[in-house]
């Protein structure tokens, strides 16, 4: 990436005004004012800031006047016209420009001639909501320019810019140094996310064994965030190793080589932690499902035992009701006071009725006792 060619070889040359007619040499329309999407446009020379143009048109003009300098243009959700203006000025590939406009891209690295196009997924941990917020960053790196297109709140590139301006020797190494600083900022931003997720997992483990019924939803939501986090970190490992493989071909400075290797180590460590988080959440979800099942089984067992006890009580009540019903029935019939009833005037009628009641009650008692109803 450090091989530099004349600007005329990779940028559209301005139209020569010498042979134009007076009507054609009228002053061009003034460039529109910079929209809020242009966060900052800065020109550097020998690692030091020389100007901060207010518009993209002014940035282009100053860069033409000082081709030995470097432009760093930061955009936040730019308009289509702004991206087309940058594409025409810096000869950006149309596929890369289309990706930068549409966003929602996976991390990747593409080379279009002398220009690198890098897509990064930044992340930040929101303490209040206890969730991970993801942002998307597109970086165009050319021989003398860096263009960052940010979609989302993360990362904070102003901190990267201030850090680089405090180290002119590093910034003097050119656009490659800016790219590696951006990569380092994105990767360093993963550390608070890893710490926050680890704390969430510790809390979830406590909630699982504490029987919190809402923990299943929290596990599911955190698992989805870890899938997104994995998609952000895993491709970076291959991307950085691809950059490292091109050190010799593109004559990358030795200091930047060490810098990139350190970033690659951090990415690998973060990717391994994220993989471990996904595995841990899967195991926690399995344990939670087992505990929920055990709890449900215990509740069903308790309901069954309560039902069994109720059935036993009902059996006893039913048995005694049947035993007491027999004498009640006999007494009711012979208490109707009709004159023409059999054995109504029989001298042994009363002893017979009492004996009949006793025999029936005893028989019912024996039957229910054998059936363990009493």
Give an overview of the whole structure.
The chain has 374 residues and is of the alpha+beta class. Helix content is 59%, strand content 14%. The chain is built from twelve helices and seven strands. It has helices at residues 7-10, 56-65, 80-90, 94-102, 157-165, 168-171, 175-188, 190-210, 215-245, 247-250, 254-334, 349-370; strands spanning 38-45, 48-51, 70-76, 108-112, 115-126, 131-141, 145-151. It has a seven-stranded mixed sheet with strand order 2-1-3-7-6-5-4, with helices on both faces. Strand 6 and strand 7 (145-151) form a beta hairpin. Helix 7 packs parallel to helix 11 and helix 9 packs antiparallel against helix 11. The protein is rod-shaped. The model is unreliable at 1-35 (pLDDT under 50).
Q: Secondary-structure blueprint of this entry?
A:
Elements: H1 7-10, E1 38-45, E2 48-51, H2 56-65, E3 70-76, H3 80-90, H4 94-102, E4 108-112, E5 115-126, E6 131-141, E7 145-151, H5 157-165, H6 168-171, H7 175-188, H8 190-210, H9 215-245, H10 247-250, H11 254-334, H12 349-370
Parallel strand pairs: 3-7
Antiparallel strand pairs: 1-2, 1-3, 4-5, 5-6, 6-7
Helix pairs in contact: 3-4, 5-7, 7-11, 8-9, 8-11, 9-11, 11-12
